[in-house]
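The data are quoted verbatim for reference:
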Amino acid sequence: MLVAVAAAALAADIVSKIVVVASLTDGDTVRLLGGLLTLRQTRNSGAAFSIGTGYTFVFTIIALGVVVAIVRTARNLRSAPWAVCLGLLLGGALGNLVDRVFRAPGLFKGHVVDWIELPHWPVFNLADSAICCGGALAVLLAARGLQVDGTRVGDETGGDDEPGAGAATAEGDARTGGSGDKEGSA
């Protein structure tokens, strides 16, 4: 699932950037939805919100580190929600990494193509969106206590939150006439 989500995010980002670069020149804008959405090609040599412009090589190394960390974490992955989360993060990181490695002005110095603009928000791309959605999902999953291996924080007793617990409850319901209690219902 992680690979499928990452591949989908990466493909959507690459295809959208190819279309934008072929269709919009610097300075061209396309206003949609009454100006709520504007398509505008820009090149970003920095990180999100154009922070750290001129440090493209550093951000390339950081992105490579993120990709390696996600691939290493994937070895312990046993949770579908975390697979989606890490897939979004991986696909987004790879999308921007492809730009940093291969786009002008040169190898490992490339500027990321950004093209989506909302009112009062910096221009971004689909890779950035995947990273933000993956990050938000990671916060949500961590807040709920769900770990990458499918267990929950503080669940050491084998409670209802563990994988397979639903089957045990259904089995108990079948034996006791629907109460879920092995001793019967009161």
Observations:
- Residues 80-102 form the longest helix (23 residues).
